[in-house]
Amino acid sequence: MRKGSKRNDWTVSEEQFLVANAGKLPKREICLLLRRSSESVRQKAKALRRQGVDVCLRYYRPTLEPCPHCGNLSGTIDRSGKCEPCRRRDQLAAIQARIADLLPLLPPDERATYERTEALLESKSDPLPEPPDTDGMSGYRRAYAGEAHARAVEACVSRNLRREVKAAQKRKERIEKKTIQ
Ligand SMILES: [Zn+2]
What we know:
Elements: H1 12-21, H2 27-34, H3 38-50, E1 65-66, E2 73-74, H4 84-102, H5 108-120, H6 139-179
Helix pairs in contact: 4-6
Zinc ion binds next to helix 4.
């Protein structure tokens, strides 16, 4: 405990800062910003909780980061600076561009066949996972659940795109066989 307890009186704005940032910033950072000891912050949070204010200091350190390309939270950003879904979309676009270049080279009847069968081909896609119900969760739990959801969404989108890429790859190969003669 500090001597000269005047300094220990919390102002309303300090309290508001604590309530707004508890769980969103690491406790150490909150202490630094308020220029208060860890003990002082802990005691204040405890006092606020006793008054029925929802203040939980437990901080969830994010493990995902936003993809600089699409902005979605991702755990798969590689040296290209893109998440897996972005990389798959690029891959798909490249294959589709190649198909578009090849199509005019097909004999007309072949092209008609291709376009007819193409309409029937629709690669399966898994539905996206439902967002979690975070009502009543602590900030920590909410952040944890939020990341788990973002991770599941990314995995699902990636899986669907991988399937599309594979299907497009096969179509491209079929067309190549018919044009290279
Ligand atoms: Zn991305």
